[in-house]
Design goal:
Length: 126
Amino acid sequence: MKEKIKHIPDWVPLVCYTAIGLGTMMGGWRIVKTMGTKITKVTPLEGVAAETAGAITLYGVSQGLGVPVSTTHTITGSIIGVGMTKRLSAVRWGVTVNLLWAWILTIPVSGLVGAGTYLIMHALGY
């Protein structure tokens, strides 16, 4: 039995695209800087290796297992792996631990923000 597909209002994707674009404009450079210099110093060859490893991991997990995976988490793990091939001390573990905490907190905080947004929108009659 087919379910009726609900129409998504045109403003919803536009607001999402705008939020993603603004977030990238405001903080994207910090992510690039953190990935390329703060975790470990990455040379062009190491960058290619990390990107290739990230792509293989993303494809394997998402297509092979059907599990959604964060590209940022995957490439970060690949960069840490590349840094560890030099020596363990080449990785700045303090930065890495901060990233891990951010990852752990992302899902529950996003859930709370989503729930709060829904409650506000619901209270306003949307």
